[in-house]
From TrEMBL:
It comes from Stylosanthes scabra. Residues 1-22 form the signal peptide. Keywords: Calcium, Disulfide bond, Heme, Hydrogen peroxide, Iron, Metal-binding, Oxidoreductase, Peroxidase, Secreted, Signal. This is Peroxidase. Removal of H(2)O(2), oxidation of toxic reductants, biosynthesis and degradation of lignin, suberization, auxin catabolism, response to environmental stresses such as wounding, pathogen attack and oxidative stress. These functions might be dependent on each isozyme/isoform in each plant tissue. It holds the Pfam family peroxidase. It is an enzyme of class 1 (oxidoreductase). Residues 23-323 form the Plant heme peroxidase family profile domain. It comes from the Eukaryota. Its cofactor is Ca(2+); heme b.
Amino acid sequence: MKKIIILIILTLFFCVFPFAYADLKLGFYSTSCPDAEAIVHAVVQQNFNEDRSITAALLRMHFHDCFVRGCDASLLIDSTESKSPEKDAGPNQTVRGFEIIDEAKTLLEASCPSTVSCADIISLATRDAVALASGPRYNVSTGRRDGLVSNSKEVKLPSPDMSVSEALQFFTAKGFSLFEMVTLLGGGHSVGNAHCSMFRERLSSFNGGNLDPSMDPNLDARLVKVCGSSRRPARNNPTVFLDQKTPFAFDNRFYNEILEKNGILHIDQQLAMDSLSRDMVSRFADDADSLFQNFANAMIKLSAVNVWLGNEGEIRKNCRAFNKNNE
């Protein structure tokens, strides 16, 4: 009688809580697709050899994906005649690197059909790109599933012109602290770049000739040459490196730059000036090891935001479309 009762309880448990046992774990594909991580790494390595800026591109893609619905690869979905996905939203118009994910997915589908999620590919590719840029090497647990929804109207991300307090609201909503925000923004922007449209209102040539007191005049002069003026803005909305000294290397130089009023974006410069974050910026400017360790921890946490697990979601055959659209 006791055995029957226990059996009934277990049956009810797994029927009511079918995903309770599911979780991310290291080496999730060790049996189902043992070469998965090696395949992703090879694709990232080849692309990095051709273009070192892919580290910044993948970091931004990863952040923009995880900060909407969670790390579910919803950012990768292409538009259709009836649907406007996250990719169409303003903040995502300049996200790039999708072809890297496509390339890895094609190889993985050939090796292990319908096994490795697009969400896991993003996390693994970002990890490898950071390491290739001389950044921290960290482990990424896998087992994510791909989401089933992508809606441009849901995209709400921190903007470059925000204050520290305003940006922090977005991070705390996802469970991140101020310290983790300073870590992720500074680490990501160490290898990042920005279009003139994201900061030109700070420039004297777009601000009636008035210098921004929080920007070094020499930097203002250099940026004006690139971005033009309100009367004659530069064509094609050029980009500039957020770290002017070591733009392709993941290091702590960015924090030194913003302490010297060489921050490109308003939010970056505010990190060094706001009393809430100034001491944290100084810490990372002085201690690269601390940045590496804390950035790795923050990225591991970021990659686990609102993930789909177990039998949730799907494993897309094509990262740009839900499976029902591939049938």
